[in-house]
Amino acid sequence: MARNTHTVSGDFDLTMDELRVVARYVVRHAEDVLSVFEQAVPDDPRPRAAIDAAWVFIGGANRSRLQRVTSFDAHRAARSAPSEAARLAARSAGDAASAAYLHPIAQVGQVGHVLRACASAARIGEMEAGGDPAIGGALLERSRQRASPVLIDVLCRYPPATGGSSRVARLMRALDHSLRQAADRLPGYTSASLADVRGKECAS
User: Any idea what DSSP says for residue 101?
Assistant: First the structure.
């Protein structure tokens, strides 16, 4: 399938292929915890539909009403979920679909669209382990390892995550800080060689 690579402009530019890298990162975390929602609410297909819509975009289709509608529906499913874990799982699915519409505006609120599903998956892991923060830390490390140079490059165009007293917010700030530190260690992060990395990853 031919890829739509046009650029979305705002305070900075984002290409469709960069958005697909972000969406792939988010959807992998959403898939990790989807079963938590489906076990709690087995007859509600909305979060899975959002994940499927994210993969349609990742696969090269234009972003469309499909991603918008399924994202809204998954977030509605989250609001009616019977537990915190199920709510976070459904919201992560909604975030996966909405990643196609990440705004190229240098506002800290956009960071949540990149990292909130990761932090939610870590929080769910903690809750399943009886509240063990070590599990959350281990899952954040997995998220850090999953983050590619292109993902980190996109993240660093936004201000660092701030605010929020919830455990998910604290986990998100920790991951955000870790990834920005990783950016400083990326070979060629500030040179033209990052463009080569970006091209190879977006084409994969």
Answer: G
